[in-house]
């Protein structure tokens, strides 16, 4: 953050608080207290009515406000995404206030930013169960670039590390939408290498570039319809998994696929679901420890067994001192 941006941010920070100590400001803005003293002196010379008292802190004269500050596209996108997560993963009492806040956000944006948020809204889906907290999201530093690819319909060139792979691969993709499920963001895109729609977990992207090349919308493609139909697509695989009762809630939260209950046994239930990747499913099952078992197909059981053997081998030899 350059000094001009920091000075504006300092005033905004003070607007929302009664008294703030220099040490708190220094920690918040990741600068030294001496820098805060100089910044406060500069604001005072510029006519901003800030008063300070040794041992107490700084305060902004009541009634003083900056003119409305315009949101950047990245800030507006972040607020929209945060709002959608709140509506899906928090108590229902917050849904209406958040919807109202998002409408106010759109109202103060210039036309180009309104269009940006509208396009992003139509191409973003969040799946969750109201009343449950959102799973922790891993590093998502590529999310805004992915959003730009979706909104601007520009090709994305990525270096991607898929689950179960020891190497990364490069893909050029046409971003169709963004989906949040199972505790992570996924890019739904037309992969030019594979010639079809694929899901890419955003925190597995190692490098990402927004190209200048644009692409036309895929005729007849609907993000919502695609996600609704994904369980029954021809390239998905039917699997059966036993889950103990304590694992069932986590499984329902983390899996976008519908869990179809079957026979109950051993203090748990056998479920049928569909997956696009047996490698991913094997890793997921193993993450439950003894709380889950692969029942079928046989190829899935072999993958889980091989992964378990690999994990066991990593713990057979003594740790390096």
Features:
321 residues; alpha+beta; 11 helices; 12 strands
Task: Please outline what is shown here.
The protein has helices spanning 3-15, 22-29, 33-45, 73-89, 95-108, 111-122, 143-152, 223-229, 245-254, 278-286, 298-314; strands at 50-53, 57-60, 124-126, 154-160, 169-181, 184-191, 196-201, 205-214, 237-244, 260-265, 268-275, 292-296.
Over all CA atoms, what is the radius of gyration? Answer: 25 Å
Helix and strand content put the structural class at alpha+beta
How many beta-strand runs? 12
The arrangement of helices and strands along the chain is HHHEEHHHEHEEEEEHEHEEHEH
Mean pLDDT: 81
Instruction: Give the CA-CA distance, first to last residue.
Output: 42 Å
What oligomeric state best describes the polypeptide chains here? single chain
Strand count, sense and closure of the main sheet?
Answer: 6 strands, mixed
Name the helicity range. 40-55%
Q: Which range does the strand content fall in? A: 25-35%
How many helices? The count is 11
Which descriptor suits the 3D outline?
globular
Low-confidence stretches: 129-139
Written account of the structure:
The chain is globular and about 75 Å long. It contains eleven helices and twelve strands. By secondary structure, it is of the alpha+beta class. A hairpin with a 3-residue loop joins strand 1 and strand 2. The longest helix has 17 residues. Helix 10 crosses helix 11. The strands form three sheets. Strands 3, 4, 5, 6, 7 and 8 form a six-stranded mixed sheet that branches. Strands 10-11-9-12 form a four-stranded antiparallel sheet. Strands 1-2 form a two-stranded antiparallel ribbon.
